[in-house]
């Protein structure tokens, strides 16, 4: 990235949330919270401020452009004798997530600037420390396996399903294969899986393709003989976290999207063919994988403090009912 890191040994920035997760609906503004710790003895703080900056760099058709997305300043009251300064800074709604790719880069940094005087020294000293801030987009709230309709080829019927519509880079993607032959001597010789990445800047689109392979302790056992009846298998594929960029929403001047490409190499007694199919997939920032599978979207379960016998008695008298579950309430 192009931002030069500046760090003072006397300034420590501790973030409450090193990664700021943002909802793609932009219903709420992201907030950066943390504490600035000043490690200086025998000094008087003149000024302490925080500067949050966001930069976007795009490159297309041999041209490049750097644009400032956000610049926000926060003054922290400096109290004599205090070394820890908590802060909270709301960020603008709708700013894009952090991106690092060959064509598109979005970077956020937080800089702490300190002006102080040492005892018996009239000169004002200046120090600065900068810390990178990562904004990561959360997946959609609705989770459904992404499955194709049953597909028909000359030699077989097939269906390919992936277990997640959104998946973080560096994690595993489960793929289920279902094949029913339509002729004698049908053989499934090989299955290849690739991820196609499209990076669009303005009206210019570049793309790259990457093979992905079965994850450790996951194997895809292909039939060694011809298939005379339905065959199916499931395999977890490992997504890299260094070769691909994550997907993004569609912003005014850029978008990154991904497609899973599946190639089935099949044959009869005389001829070999390739059957190809593709599915869109939302690849998330690898930081999202630290969240516990969807649990961050769940509300805590309602627990009644009464015994079942007490509840039954109140129900019979029509005096009490438990509130509906969250899932039932939003389904109305």
What this model shows, in words?
With 332 residues, the protein is mainly beta. It folds into two domains: 11-137, Immunoglobulin-like (Sandwich); 146-290, Immunoglobulin-like (Sandwich). 4% of the residues lie in helices and 52% in strands. It is built from two helices and 19 strands. Strands 10, 11, 12, 13, 14, 15, 16, 17, 18 and 19 form a ten-stranded mixed sheet that branches. Strands 2, 4, 5, 7, 8 and 9 form a six-stranded mixed sheet that branches. The protein has a three-stranded antiparallel sheet with strand order 1-3-6, with no helix packed on it. A hairpin with a 5-residue loop joins β8 and β9. It is elongated. It comes from Mucor saturninus.
Largest sheet composition = 10 strands, mixed
Binned strand content: over 45%
CATH topology of the largest domain, what is it called?
Answer: Immunoglobulin-like
Order of helices and strands: EEEEEEEEEEEEEEEEEEEHH
The portion of residues assigned to helices is: under 10%
Rg, nearest Å: 28 Å
Given this structure, which CATH class of the largest domain is correct? Mainly Beta
Organism: Mucor saturninus
InterPro entries: Arrestin-like_C, Arrestin_C-like, Arrestin_domain-protein, Ig_E-set
GO biological process, one term: ubiquitin-dependent endocytosis
GO molecular function: protein-macromolecule adaptor activity; ubiquitin protein ligase binding
